[in-house]
Amino acid sequence: MADRKETKRLIVSLLIRGLFFSFVWWSLSGGAASSWWIGGPAVVLALTTSIALLPPQHLNGYALLRFIPFFLIRSLLGGVDVAWRAFHPRLPIDPLLIHYRLTLPVGLPQVVMINSVSLLPGTLSVAIDQQVLQLHVLSGGRDYLDGLQQLEQRVGRIFGHTVRGETIDETI
């Protein structure tokens, strides 16, 4: 049964990506039919490379739709928070480097998490070593931990994983 789901996921992914790469080629070539002598192999090469580098993933569409407004709202709040801190007369920052243990699996789920961290107010990904994410935070306190855990849970739901990360240590 699992093999059928994987096969179906691969076929759907091939169709969607194939249509996308074909559309990109068609757009770049101005729709010229004669360009497909080059475009056909280019699309096949792009499709093969795409599948090799980013295998099809199980995505929860509902969780993804719920993540979009969360992402937009947090991006806005993060920008407002950083701007407020930068223009505040007392410059209320207390920067820290923290280490946060991810429980998301390696691959696309971690990439989405790492790239989304900067949307949280005053946080920025610095590095990742195995499952430990190093972050720069503008302000101490523990507010960032709730935000990180909430973000990791939301990203985990998109990929069908239950997660619970934790802070390992904090340094100045």
UniProtKB/TrEMBL annotation:
Statement: the UniProt record of this protein carries the keyword Membrane: yes
Keywords on record: Cell membrane, Membrane, Transmembrane, Transmembrane helix
Annotated compartments: Cell membrane
MF terms (GO), sorted A to Z: monoatomic cation transmembrane transporter activity
CC terms in the record's Gene Ontology section: plasma membrane
Spans traversing the lipid bilayer: 10-28, 34-55, 67-87
InterPro entries in the cross-refs: Cation_antiport_E
One Pfam family linked to the record: MNHE
Topology relative to the membrane: Multi-pass membrane protein
Chief localisation class: membrane
Protein name (database record): Na(+) H(+) antiporter subunit E
Lineage: unclassified sequences, metagenomes, ecological metagenomes
